[in-house]
Structure prediction request, 455 residues.
Amino acid sequence: MKPFQSVCLFKSLLTNCYCHGQLHSCLFPPVAKKIGYVVGLHNCGFWRPKSLLDAARFTLSFNSRHRKTHQDSRALWKHEAVQKYLETLSKEYQQVIHLLNADSINDFEQRTLRRRCADLSPIAAAFQEIKEAEREVQELEAMCRELDSRDEKQLLELALEEKETLDKKINMLCRKLFQLLVPKEKYDRSHVILEVTAGRTTGGDICQQFTKEMFEMYQNYADYKHWTFDIVNYMPAEIGGLHHAAAHISGDDVYRHLKYEGGTHRVQRIPETGLSSRMQRIHTGTMSVIVLPQPEEVDVKVDPKDLRIDTFRAKGAGGQHVNKTDSAVRIVHLPTGLAVECQQERSQQMNKEIALRTLRAKLYQQIIEKQLSQEQSARKLQLGTRAQSERIRTYNFTQDRVTDHRISYDARNIKEILSGKEALDKLINRLLEFAEIEAVTEYLENLQALEGGGC
Prediction:
């Protein structure tokens, strides 16, 4: 999945619902709150807080050239437009606090202000904490210059260590701040269904082997994150690789962490065995990953009349029931042609329930895709569309390098990444951070567009 698909929806909502300085009623409260608008109070005689669009009157200069400099939260934090925007929110927070202490507001007004105060409080706190830490860094830098001039090496070393600690704290606070600013996706806390499928190769069977390694990587990552990983379908290749597999992953914020793993993963390696000396060269292959948010039962209704349910004998390793009983289930959704299989359980009924759950997830994904395509901005995002066919990452074994093409990020030590632990978590968090930066940048660009062109 390409990062930042929510940005276009967020931007489109902002553009469509704000026109000529007025917030239209079509913008429902949860989204309005996420975008940062202050809910207007119905009493005309009472103070009406300015919308952030009215309050933040400043010129932005983000473009593709500038974006390359905003590769981390700290760099974006230093931008003048961001500073002014956060100053505006901080001032509004102080104004809301002042009004909450007034005796002249009624219950409705008080509830509205309290909600707004709850939204702004963590942002204002993080903003002030970063400012305070930056002041401490400036004091330490002045101290370091003085100690250096006096050749106080031991004290200078202690001061530099303290400065390094404060720099790490500021980086962490900047990341936290932008996480607070970025609208949370509806499905971030959802469980997921993850599917892997081997692609084509220029020679050998590296696709099937790589697909197996990737599936095991995500299984190890689920263990690393203390998630539950339940295999739904598993179709091994003849020589030890994997053609296709699917798993249901449940736990805290699973979709948030895995949503950018969907897409085409490319592998470049020299096959270790099974080829003649003439074929001992670098081969290129692919495998695809699909990550579907797992819907609740009420999210997607499936009419039993629209289903064709077939049973067949399970294949592959799995015990005495394999190839002896018709425990495997295939379900076809006739209106869409979607087909799912499950053969992991001994019970046909359990396989049927798991297959239905997978089918609902796929139908749910179609609804999401349709909504996003309708809401997407005409301008293509810098990082492309969300097409599953797009190559998102390359695993170059000969150079021991993993490259994420969406954010131009290289990581070394492929074995560490494929182990599914800290190295993979670092790469995934880098994607999440970049997505947050992109969302804030898109939002600020949109303010500039609204100020410059109106509706």
